[in-house]
Design goal:
It is a single chain. The chain is α/β, with parallel strands linked by helices. It contains 9 helices and 14 strands. The strands form 2 sheets. Strands 6-5-4-3-2-1-14 form a 7-stranded mixed β-sheet. The protein has a 7-stranded mixed β-sheet with strand order 7-8-9-10-11-12-13. The two termini are 34 Å apart. It binds zinc ion (2 copies). One zinc ion binds next to loops.
Amino acid sequence: MTLRFRVLGSGSGGNATLVEGGGARVLLDAGLGPRSLAERLQSAGVDPASLDAVFVSHEHGDHARGAAAFSAKWGVPLALTRGTFRAAGFAEAKLPAWDEVAPGETRTIRRLTLRAVAVPHDAASPLAFVASAGAVSFGHATDLGHLSRGLVEAFRGCAAVLLESNYDPAMLRDGPYPWSLKERILGPLGHLSNGDVGRLLEKGLGEACRHVVLAHLSRKNNHPELALQAAEEALERAGRREVRVTLAAPEGTGWVAVHASRAPSSRHAGQLRLF
Ligand SMILES: [Zn+2]
Ligand SMILES: [Zn+2]
């Protein structure tokens, strides 16, 4: 079974990722306006009305801004936690349908399964997602303040993962943000740094993983080369030369195909402890 994804937007300007597999098609987040979302879907050759659902990770505008209007215009149901629904101020009467998903639950649309994974972030009930078609899985996590055990375990079997690599600590420290905002970003419910991502790639990445996409880079507090270098150095230290790293530009990526890989089962039997 094949699985593929395409980032349609990444970062504070708006996040959305299209995932296709198992005969289904979903959006993860809708942080762009409904018109931009529709245009980006159409330029990927996808009719917006053909989507099966929009899964919303949390209520922050860069993830949820276009969700309700897109859902209403194209008749595509939303899937999200009750906490996110309330905090985003969505109104049931204005949506064609919405599915309340609780952290830890899965939803299966034809042969595509979406698993909701709770993540630590300063929102009502924020989620990461694992999309699976057959034996192939793709993990998608933006906006989390630290690497929780639940997330690392949920991503362990993924052949591809998308992770936020939000900031370089020195750039954030010396940058223009007020201290209160810097503290929020650095805190346990803020965002992941390049070093946090490196720690996951070096010590917690599953053996099946062959592709890492770095997303949600801050324009002011990070530089694409720094994020890429931190990830590549971490993989190098872990001896994971088979893993490819790509950066999601603010306007997204092309299609990325996810393939099942035959992971060697014993090489990393003595996993280093991440916690
Ligand atoms: Zn965000
Ligand atoms: Zn957020």
